[in-house]
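INFO batch 0412 | record 1 of 1 | parsing
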Amino acid sequence: MIATAWRVVGVGFSLLVVLTAALLYGVDPQTTNAGGVMIGEDFWFSYEFRTDDLTVLMLAVVGVVSTCVQVYSIGYVRERVSSYTAIVTLFTAAMVTVVISDNLFVLLIGWEVMGACSYLLIGHYWERRDARAGAMKAFLVTRLADVGFLFGIFVLGVGYHTFRISELGSGPIEPHTLTIGTILLLVGVVGKSAQVPLQTWLPDAMPGPSPVSALIHAATMVAAGVFLIARLYDLFVEAETTLTVLAVVACVTMLFAALCAMAAVEVKRVLAWSTVSQLAIMFAGLSLGTHDGRHAALFHLVTHAAFKGLLFLAAGVLLHQVGSAAFVVLRRYTRKGALRKRMPVTFVTMTIGLAALAGVPGFAGFFSKDSVVEAAWDHARDGSTVGWVVLVSVCLTAALTAFYCVRLWLWVFFRTPALAGALGAFEDDDPMSDLEEPDSSKLREGSWLMLAPMILLALGAAGLGYTDGVHISWPIALVTTVLALFGALPAYSLWQRGADPRPVFLEREFGADSAYQRVFVVPVQWLAKLAVGGDRDVVGAYVRGTGRAGVLASAGFRKLQTGNVQTYLTLAVVGVVAFAILAGVIGS
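INFO prediction complete | emitting tokens
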């Protein structure tokens, strides 16, 4: 415990040092050369660090969320604390490396270290099969995408004759080279941020500790993709084809993930799909190719870090006290409103987080989401097809988001009026169906080490929208508010009637996992078995046959060594006679 506390103090002190240094440099772009190394005879690999307004913004997000997670973890994590804390610290350092780097290869180092840390943290409870499977899935999917990312770095670096980020775009480059390079980078971004078609790993990463989920979803790994495009925005703006691809991916993803969140029955899985959807909204803002779109995307990134980090930490408190955050378990405590009454701080903070996520007017998510909508509307009025597609997609997603936020809030914290007939489809899967009614008197609020970070993030989820000038387009605000009501009312109606709160036809999440299983996993397994069989039955057969032939030959020769002199003389005479006869035959 003491060692963990000192690590938290170290992370907090590092946050203060980094932010102070960044503010002393100011927000004007500055690059500091930290040295380099000669590779071969002609290539000097340098590593520079860049300070600008984007760096300061991301350092603040990463530092605050990471510090909150470390403090929260003191009261949450009980198993393998030392390794957990060390990996979380390394995870944070890797994201900081990505943020401050001015060299694509140094950025790549931080990018890949994050991937390794996510694998270790998702699989922290390695004794659980789902944790091991989720960790492996996350590692394989993101590493597959990073192959494209690596080649994108090669294409852009060779095309511009430099790997320094601040110098990319300063020289001439063939348009097709720029397009290929940015699309390859986009492949890595899609994998890291769990966008379609590489979205399946993030919801399956939920067996990891809840503070890890908060860190991954709010400030580090999945946010790195948004940061990268914002950092290289001038390049992406010049590659119109890449921006169009990004817009299509973002629009499909935000709707796909929102629909999946509507069908999920476990709190953390709802939040995971929500992260995928909200990241897509940020990418949609970036795909507009305008300054307002970039600003709106980063604004939403900051507010999302606050309310999504808060929601995962609140879900962690539920897990800590109840043992599961699945609706089928939580509803048993909800019959008497126990969760709301006995865990008031968790209830209030989680309500704030869900309100921000749903875009309730006055909360941070309302302002940042509307800024994306406004940027898309301005772009659409200029005659942009991409602008119209983004505008419609974000508006539909806003309604779907309100549905699953209200659904989650009501079913977790409030007694369902018609609960006796509710969740009939879940009864067969209810792990507590044969158990006695849980003793809600044993429920208690989490420790203050867990609640204090939640309160801090709740303040951000409620107030961050007022730090960006509070620019409100009232017509857009009215439209998005009406859309949120359209999404919230059906969720309320289902809850009021005690009906199944999930669209059953979406429970398989469009069958993406099973499709990938058939298209990719099964053929790879078949080829692996074929390779093993070929090695065993073909290559191995020759090796084993050679060995057996040697053994048989040596056994035969060993039988000739009888130790009887008369036998040796007889064989010698027979041999001489045989050779003489053979020589005579050959000579004639």
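INFO post-check: DSSP finds 21 helices and two strands in the chain.
INFO record closed
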